[in-house]
Design a protein that fits this description.
By secondary structure, the protein is an alpha+beta fold. It has five helices and ten strands. Strands 1, 2, 3, 4, 5, 6, 7, 8, 9 and 10 form a ten-stranded mixed sheet that branches.
C-alpha cells in the first residue's frame, strides 16, 4: 500500500530534507517515526527537497508499506514519535500511480521578509530581516518579468545539478502585510536556490539599489554572477504542491491562479 502524507516543519535545526550521515535531517526523522507505527522500515519520497534552514507549510511525501493502519493512526502515531519541529498534517491511501514528486504539476513557495529597523526576538529563524525600507509594489512589478517559460541560469546555484535551466513560472506576487514583505511564487519546478536568488534580486530592487527592469536583464544575460545575492534560508517556506484531481488531494487555494494548461515539468 502507498500512503500519501502532508507534513509541516521548521527547518532551522535540520541539515535539510535529505538524509545525511551523522546529521539531523527531516527525511530520516520522519522515517524513524513512521517505522515505529508501521513496525517495519519506511522510506519516504518528497515532492521537493528543501535545504538547511528552509521550512514547509505543507510538504507532500509518500511511502510504501505492508502495514495496514487507519489514516488517523499514521497522523497521531507518527506525531507521537516526532519532535515538535515536524508535524504530520494529514495521511491517506494514495490513488493509482500517485508519486509525490513525479505526479506534481506545480509547486508553490513563500518567502517572508521582516522589513523594519530592528530584528525580531520572536521569529529570527522564521523570517529574513531587512532593515532598509522595501517598496513591495516595485518588487511585484519587477517579478512579473519572471512569469513564463525561461532560462533561469542567472537564478540557479552554481552547483545546481538539473539537466536544464528552463522552468515555467506560473505566477509571482509580492505584497506587504504590516512590517512583512511576502513573495509567493509557483512554477512547474524549481532550480537549486532559484527562489532564494530571486528573493535576493527583488530585495535589491525593492531597496532601490537596482532598476525595476533588472530581472528582465538578468534573464537575458544568463549569468549567475551578475544577479542578486542568495537570500538567507530562514524566510523560505515550501507552501504546497498541486496535483491532478484524479489523486483526490486537497490543493492550496493559491493554486486557483494556475493556468488551465499547467502541466508537469520533465527534466
Amino acid at each position: 500500500m502507498r500512503i500519501a502524507l502532508g507534513i509541516e516543519y521548521d527547518g532551522n535545526a535540520f541539515c535539510g530534507w535529505q538524509t545525511q550521515a551523522e546529521k539531523r535531517s527531516i527525511q530520516s526523522t520522519l522515517e524513524l517515526a513512521l517505522a515505529k507505527v508501521a513496525n517495519e522500515p519506511v522510506t519516504v519520497i518528497c515532492a521537493g527537497r528543501t535545504d538547511a534552514g528552509v521550512h514547509a507549510l505543507e510538504q507532500v511525501v509518500h511511502f510504501d508499506t505492508t502495514a495496514e493502519r487507519e489514516s488517523y493512526s499514521w497522523v497521531m502515531g507518527g506525531n507521537t514519535h516526532l519532535p515538535d519541529d515536524v508535524r504530520i498534517l494529514w495521511a491517506k491511501p494514495a490513488i493509482g500511480d500517485f508519486h509525490a514528486r513525479y505526479s506534481a504539476i506545480a509547486r508553490f513557495y513563500r518567502y517572508i521578509i521582516l522589513n523594519r529597523p530592528v530584528k525580531s526576538a520572536l521569529t529570527p529563524t522564521q523570517t529574513t530581516w531587512c532593515h532598509a525600507p522595501l517598496d513591495a509594489d516595485l518588487m511585484h512589478r519587477a517579478a512579473q518579468s519572471l512569469i513564463g517559460h525561461h532560462d533561469f541560469s542567472s537564478f540557479r546555484a552554481q552547483g545546481c545539478q538539473s539537466k536544464s535551466p528552463f522552468r515555467q513560472v506560473h505566477f509571482v506576487e509580492v505584497y506587504r502585510e504590516g512590517d512583512r514583505v511576502i513573495m509567493d511564487i509557483a512554477a512547474n519546478a524549481f532550480l537549486h536556490h532559484m527562489v532564494r536568488n530571486i528573493a535576493g534580486t527583488l530585495i535589491a530592487i525593492g531597496a532601490r539599489k537596482q532598476p525595476v527592469d533588472w530581472t528582465r536583464e538578468l534573464l537575458n544575460v544568463k549569468k549567475r554572477a551578475l544577479a542578486g545575492i542568495t537570500a538567507p534560508p530562514h524566510g523560505l517556506y515550501m507552501g504546497g504542491v498541486f496535483y491532478p484531481e484524479c489523486y483526490q488531494l486537497a490543493n492550496h487555494p493559491v493554486f486557483a491562479k494556475l493556468p488551465a494548461d499547467a502541466h508537469r515539468h520533465q527534466d
